[in-house]
Design brief:
Elements: E1 2-3, E2 6-7, E3 10-17, E4 21-28, H1 33-42, E5 45-48, E6 50-52, E7 56-60, E8 70-74, E9 78-82, E10 87-91, E11 95-107, E12 123-128
Amino acid sequence: MSIGGASVSRIEIQLLINDRHVINAEFKRHFSPLTIKKLISIMPISGLISKYNEKFVYIKTDLDIGVEKPVNNFKKGNIAFSPSGNFISVFLKETSIAQKYNLLGIVTSDNLDLLSSVIVGDKLTFRKSEI
């Protein structure tokens, strides 16, 4: 379903690295509608990047929400929220983890590899798309 060319079920977002590099992505409402609604309401969300074993990068948020349609298998480019840690992750490779996450969406541009080269402490911002 779309309204004026914009989809109701997909929300275009951007990941901004150090206020310079843009990675396009989208949230898909049917994955975790309550989590996505809350994240959109507090965007932009910025934080310092942390890494986990080169499998994903993440930033801490102030959002406190429970588990919603939990998953623990991820594909390269998936974006997910950790209810137990209150952080948003972007997966750099196919990964299975023990912790349950709320799946949010996917990276839609071809430059996901920019996140592989970030260093801990770089800034990552999730914002609504300006397109």
